[in-house]
From TrEMBL:
UniProt similarity note: Belongs to the class-I pyridoxal-phosphate-dependent aminotransferase family.
GO terms under cellular component: cytosol; mitochondrion
Subunit structure: Homodimer.
Catalytic reaction annotation: 3-phenylpyruvate + L-glutamine = 2-oxoglutaramate + L-phenylalanine; an S-substituted L-cysteine + H2O = a thiol + pyruvate + NH4(+); L-kynurenine + 2-oxoglutarate = kynurenate + L-glutamate + H2O
The protein's name: Kynurenine--oxoglutarate transaminase 1
Subcellular location, record wording: Cytoplasm, Cytosol
Organism lineage string: Eukaryota, Metazoa, Chordata, Craniata, Vertebrata
Annotated Aminotransferase class I/classII large domain residues: 86-467
GO molecular function terms attached to this record: cysteine-S-conjugate beta-lyase activity; glutamine-phenylpyruvate transaminase activity; kynurenine-oxoglutarate transaminase activity; pyridoxal phosphate binding
EC numbers on record: 2.6.1.64, 2.6.1.7, 4.4.1.13
Pfam families linked to this entry: Aminotran_1_2
Co-factor requirement: pyridoxal 5'-phosphate
Keywords of this entry: Aminotransferase, Cytoplasm, Lyase, Pyridoxal phosphate, Transferase
Pathway annotation: Amino-acid degradation; L-kynurenine degradation; kynurenate from L-kynurenine: step 1/2
Length: 481
């Protein structure tokens, strides 16, 4: 089959070129209306160039534009570096110790006893799970939660966040993101067509010799208020914060709540680390504040709650007026989450509901054990001249590397590469320790302002921390005069 296509080609000919498609895939040729050798005839080189231009003009763009600029992922990059060397991996946030026995038994029960758990369940959540989530969290949020209308089970907290952004953020909408932020918030905003608007937590000065604390990192109320406009659709809050470990105080949450209410803005609150809070601090859900349930989506994670990050069971709680839009996205994307994982998580929550507030509760035991790990890591990092920022919660702490930045300013790397990225690559290669550069948790304009911090994960087994100690001791010996 042959046919002509009319295209404007960058050719010197005044006469038209005929473009013919052959029946073979991808085969076409050009034919001049001038005889060979005449003054107007194209040379072979010119025809070839015209052909390439035509192919480029007719080629379809393969990737969707929503993917522009978000193809890079720090976990892939630094995970690859960690796999190429003999290292102690304190980068990615997951436990390297077993889950509690009751969680393992719950999963074994789910996969071995009721054969119907191998089949579909309700699209928006396995009924025993949505029921226990409604009962359990209703007490904390001061709400009567309807399991059918106010709970959505998702593929991890990641899935809850993605579903929320896709359901609520439209082209041109602004989303306020508090820095440092978990890195998926920005690309999820962009994929939905929204515009990220950033506001930074800023550290307050400390006394000489005193360690900084995540509680010292504060929002400027005036700056935060200035970020709200008529186009602001949502604000995303993360408490306890990753990577900083900050637990937002009631006063800070009341500031955020008042601005959200004043400007009719939805609050998406990522609270996956809510049970990992230290030193007597208290986690407060912003949805529990007056007037906030109606405009808040609260995201949780079984992975962080029961130390089973691979189960990928998450949820989002909120009013039906918001959740009905998330259900629309959910039913037209994943539709349904694995039944057996949901059944296991339901059983875990049923046990914790009976034990809650008692010393034997996992939610009481886990933070005590992990605070011990945190303190161990703080002492070890201090021994080599690193200055940890004491976290109030989460799996992580960040540590100040300013002293190394002044002593070793010229580490290998691209001239425009933030210092913390170069430092982490150097540390992986030369010290056998993996961390994550904190600049990846900031917007591009702010990365150079905070490129003197790196993030470590202390949600690790005692043997991992001892291996860290050995690496740091070798480092310490090298630093001695």
């Amino acid at each position: 089959m042959q046919g002509e296509a009319s295209r404007s080609l960058p050719c010197s000919l005044e006469a038209p070129l005929s473009v013919f498609w052959s029946s073979g895939p991808g085969r076409l040729w050009l034919e001049s209306n001038y005889p060979p050798g005449s003054p107007g005839c194209c040379t072979t080189a010119t025809l070839t160039f015209c052909l390439l231009c035509l192919q480029l003009a007719m080629a379809k763009r393969l990737p969707a534009r929503r993917l522009d600029g978000i193809d890079h992922n720090p976990w892939v990059e630094f995970g690859k570096l960690a796999s190429e060397a003999d290292v102690v991996n304190l980068g990615q946030g997951f436990p390297d110790f077993p889950p509690p026995d009751f969680a393992v038994e719950a999963f074994q029960h789910a996969v071995s006893r009721d054969f119907m758990l191998n089949q579909y369940t309700k699209a928006f959540g396995y009924p025993p799970l949505t029921k226990i989530l409604a009962s359990f969290f209703g007490k904390f949020l001061g709400q009567v939660i309807d399991p059918l209308k106010n709970v959505l089970v998702t593929v991890g907290a990641y899935g809850a966040l993605f579903t929320a952004f896709q359901a609520l953020v439209d082209v041109g909408d602004e989303v306020i993101i508090i820095e440092p932020f978990f890195d998926c918030y920005e690309p999820m905003t962009l994929m939905a067509g929204g515009r990220p608007v950033f506001v930074s937590l800023k550290p307050c000065p400390t006394q000489d010799g005193e360690l900084d604390s995540s509680s010292n990192w504060q929002l400027d109320p005036t700056e935060l208020a200035s970020k709200f406009t008529s186009r602001t659709k949502a604000l995303i809050l993360n408490t306890p914060n990753n990577p900083l470990g900050k637990v937002f105080s009631r006063a800070e949450l009341e500031l955020v709540a008042s601005l959200c209410q004043q400007h009719d803005v939805v609050c998406i609150t990522d609270e996956v680390y809510q049970w990992l809070v230290y030193d007597g601090y208290q986690h407060i859900s912003i949805a529990s504040l007056p007037g906030m349930w109606e405009r808040t989506l609260t995201v949780g994670s079984a992975g962080k709650t029961f130390s089973v990050t691979g189960w990928k069971v998450g949820w989002v709680l909120g009013p039906d007026s918001l959740l009905k839009h998330l259900r629309t996205v959910h039913q037209n994307s994943v539709y349904h989450c694995p039944t057996q994982g949901q059944a296991a998580v339901a059983q875990c929550f049923e046990q914790e509901q009976m034990l809650f507030g008692q010393p034997s509760s996992y939610f009481a035991q886990l933070p005590q054990a992990i605070q011990h790990n945190r303190d161990h890591m703080i002492r070890s990092l201090q021994s080599v001249g690193l200055r940890p920022v004491i976290p109030q919660g989460s799996y992580f702490l960040i540590t100040d590397i300013s002293d190394f930045k002044s002593k070793m300013p010229d580490l290998p790397g691209a001239a425009d590469e933030p210092y913390d990225r170069r430092f982490v690559k150097w540390m992986i290669k030369n010290k056998g320790l993996v961390a994550i550069p904190v600049s990846v948790f900031y917007s591009v304009p702010h990365r150079k302002l905070f490129d003197h911090y790196i993030r470590f994960c202390f949600m690790k087994d005692e043997s991992t921390l001892q291996a860290m100690d050995q690496k740091l001791q070798m480092w310490k010996d090298e630093l001695r005069p």
